[in-house]
Amino acid sequence: MDSGSKCAPKMGKEFESEKFPKESENKTLEKNGPGKTAVVIGAVILAAVIALMTGLLIWHFQFRTEQLSKRMYIGSMKVENQVFENAYKNSSSPEFKALVQQVLRDLKVIYTNNPKLKKYYVGSVVQAFSEGSVIAYYLSEFKVPAGQEASVDNAMADLDTTVKRTLASPKRPTNALEIREMRASVLDDRLLSTSFKKNLRYSEHTKPNVVSWIKSPGFPDTPYTPNTFIQWELRVDRDNIIKLEFDTMNLEENCKHDFVKIYDSLVPIESRALEELCGHYSRTAPLTFYSSGNVMLVTMGTNDDLDSIGFLAKVSQIPPGTISKNFVSLSFLFQVPKDKAVKVTFKKLLLAEPGQEDGKNCNKDYVMIDDGKRLCGENLKGTLVEASKTNKIKVSFHSDYSYVDRGFLAEYEAIDIKDPCPNKFLCKNQWCIDRNLTCDGWNDCGDNSDEEKCKCSSDKITCKNGLCKPKFWKCDGVNDCGDNTDELNCGLCKIRECFNNYSKKYPFYRLI
């Protein structure tokens, strides 16, 4: 073919003469041989480097992405500048859809303001709303690299801090939602199971002086259906609570197979779980649960083995505070050697009833220290510390039926009364921190006592209110001092200069 002949190399005498050089030319080649050898070696090394870099890039962009795992967080947020409407109960209503868009927009902003969450965030869906003013329930998806799960979990557990910073941003839209009390936890892996062949959802709004019944499919005539996940969304009128009583409970003995789980929420937030049930319970000792608000969620999951009769439960609406019997009241007495004192550190304190979220007016659920001081509210940072003046301390826990929260986790230790923090700085809240953490611009104590009465070093900003802040925070557009000292006398700095200051402080931002 003509096209083939145009591409065919010439194989005549001219080619042969080039292939076999003359003797004089051989001498030239021998003389220049080492230089050409070096060029060849350099070319080989360059090719190897390029191949290595190409391989690394292919691994980074193709194979490394396979190490990302899907992590689902279920949560709730309180929206204070919204009034609940009945239309929010209907996911098909225009009002529901409009509020969903606002929540999704603000969720994205909140996650973007946290460097640990921003780069892994995929998206969210809003599942429901309830009263108070409006509580939005959402599910958020993240793609998290292996080994980073704990850091993302911690960031999600501390969403309130990110929310406060978002609300304080000068760039916040005027029509943004007033969000408070964000709660989120990892979704139970069983709820992501692909073995469920059926997913059913029921809604029940129980009115005053009416008893509603919920039951497993087929009860009592046939066993419940296998490989099924079911949700019952329970509601009562505003300012009332739900009383859930199980008349019959007969499931498999192993909760890993079949289970019923109850939440003080409209979605399965693990931190709001009241109880997980399986096995058999006698009618002579009925199981009773109370919600803290006017909503509750009952879930049921089944596999394909040993299906049983299931459960029957009644739902009623009652006013809060009508039950006088304490849910629990118990005391702990900690004692150490006579020449020591006792320090109790609350690693977690989660007793945030409505009206006492800030840790004040602790008259419902609380921890009492030595029959005097009461602790309530929410503290997840482990900075809440109580110390005795003797070698004994009494810690009492009281809970009533009006609200259900997660409780507390504490540890105690013996300390020297005269020197409770050897070689460390003693915070006002009795916490101990390294001395080099004082006056560095960060609230390491949790009560800011490590940043008081400071003499600022030359590499710090001396705020008018007595605080010290890193100098690279000056003129970055953020009021870090709290009295705007760090943003005074900045002039009209160039955009790139100001942004570079901001980028040093928040390295996940870059100016292109």
* CATH fold label of the largest domain: Jelly Rolls
Cα Rg:
33 Å
Poorly predicted residue ranges: 1-32, 322-326, 502-512
CATH class (first level) name of the largest domain: Mainly Beta
The domain count comes to 4
In short:
With 512 residues, the chain is of the alpha+beta class. It has 8 helices and 26 strands.
Q: What can you see in these coordinates?
A:
The protein is an alpha+beta fold and 512 residues long. It folds into four domains: 66-187, Alpha-Beta Plaits, CATH 3.30.70.960; 191-318, Spermadhesin, CUB domain (Jelly Rolls); 328-420, Sandwich (Jelly Rolls); 454-512, Irregular (Low-density Lipoprotein Receptor), CATH 4.10.400. It is built from eight helices and 26 strands. The protein has helices spanning 2-7, 13-19, 23-63, 94-112, 115-118, 149-157, 159-168, 495-505; strands at residues 68-79, 121-131, 134-145, 179-186, 198-206, 211-215, 228-236, 241-250, 259-263, 273-277, 280-281, 287-290, 295-301, 310-318, 328-335, 340-351, 366-369, 373-375, 377-379, 384-387, 392-399, 407-416, 425-426, 432-433, 460-462, 468-470. The chain has a five-stranded mixed beta sheet, with no helix packed on it. Strands 6, 8, 11, 12 and 14 form a five-stranded antiparallel beta sheet that branches. A four-stranded antiparallel beta sheet has the order 2-3-1-4, with helices on one face. The longest helix is centred in the first third of the chain and has 41 residues, at 23-63. The radius of gyration is 33 Å and the shape is globular. The two termini are 55 Å apart.
